[in-house]
Amino acid sequence: xxxxxxxxxxxxxVEKEDVTLDCVYETRDTTYYLFWYKQPPSGELVFLIRRxxxxxxxxxxxRYSWNFQKSTSSFNFTITASQVVDSAVYFCALSLHSxxxxxxxxxxxxxxxTVNP
Amino acid sequence: EAQVTxxxxxxxxxxxxxxxxxxxxxxxxxYMSWYRQDPGLGLRQIYYSMNxxxxxxxxxxxxxxxxxxxxxxxxxxxxxxSPNQTSLYxxxxxxxxxxxTEAFFGQGTRLTVV
Lengths: 117, 114
Description:
The structure holds two protein chains of two kinds. Helix content of chain A is 0%, strand content 52%. By secondary structure, chain A is mainly β.
């Protein structure tokens, strides 16, 4: 069965600090997709990134970067120079590419990030 | 603007009173699904639909019904709501299924059953 673990329930940092959110996943399939979503206090889910299992290149988008390592089944998310507006719950999710599978996103339980001024 | 629209955003109801949460998308997506979000549990899939008239159960379908009579709409029906269905609900749509594209989520419906 597929599973996503976000071991950090809550993280609190001071503005301008770098912060890394951990995500570890489990799946027996060789083809899958990993996602990160942001949920600000207003409640909506904002798509941040998608990565497929064959693409292990790290990605940077502004202050955000993602480190995908298949060897450790991890897909960690780093925010550089954090800002108060980054305060949110962040979800890591896994989706399988497997014939006959239910098409769904399996979510981790989320990490609440609080960035203090 | 591409969007998934859920209504209502907030709802307080009493045990046993049937309710429907509507979901509509304007992107001509084949795939739609419902999730519920509970503290400490993340999001869990309730039902999904691969296309019109094709629906199936997700991880937590008990107490819910869905229908997909039109491609754009995917209502969630609670025939007899109970307090354990108090939750934040999200509708999502995707072009080919979540494995290929990002899922577009609605803004959420916060349901309280008393």
